[in-house]
Amino acid sequence: MQVSMTVNDVEVTEEIEGRTLLVHFLRDHLGLTGTHWGCDTSNCGTCVVWMDGEPVKSCTVLAAMAGGHAVRTVEGLAKGAELDPVQEGFIQCHGLQCGFCTPGMMMTARALLDRNPDPTDTEIREAISGQICRCTGYATIVRSVRWASVKEASVKQASVKQASVEEASEEVTA
Ligand code: FES
Ligand code: FES
């Protein structure tokens, strides 16, 4: 059967077997190996991607079910050469060791910050509670997400300040 969807803003159409899981479609058909496959039990969460902006475990979704939807993977997180603050946070706060869980963690973290820009540590832990990290003990992952939250708040504050300076100087010159 044929399936079409948008992946990281690009329209793709592929011939697949009906039983193909989204995680295998992304990795094996599209070569997007940033999405990892870590279990057969829907427990590890390393396969998390977004479908229409919502995090989903791509090992629990048939590629056919994603037909007509917009999928985003970790490869679509950065804007060109500019890393997403969540990616920066994982670098700054050592949110990874082996990195196997990291793509899924980052997709979940980005979705959390999009709906709750200032989450508590408990809310961060709740958001990633469906995902397993065998290396970090989670503390540095929580710290990484908090780093991204603080960075985004300061960028927002700086742009509001800049806008009010520009507004004030326009009033003076008017
Ligand atoms: S591969 Fe483990 S939950 Fe999807
Ligand atoms: S960094 Fe190794 S599993 Fe999370």
UniProtKB/TrEMBL annotation:
Limits of the 2Fe-2S ferredoxin-type domain: 1-77
InterPro entries in UniProt: 2Fe-2S-bd, 2Fe-2S-bd_dom_sf, 2Fe-2S_ferredoxin-like_sf, 2Fe-2S_ferredoxin-type, Beta-grasp_dom_sf, Diverse_Oxidoreductases
UniProt KW keywords: 2Fe-2S, Iron, Iron-sulfur, Metal-binding, Oxidoreductase
GO MF annotations in UniProt: 2 iron, 2 sulfur cluster binding; metal ion binding; oxidoreductase activity
This protein's name: (2fe-2S)-binding domain-containing protein
UniProt organism field: Actinoplanes friuliensis DSM 7358
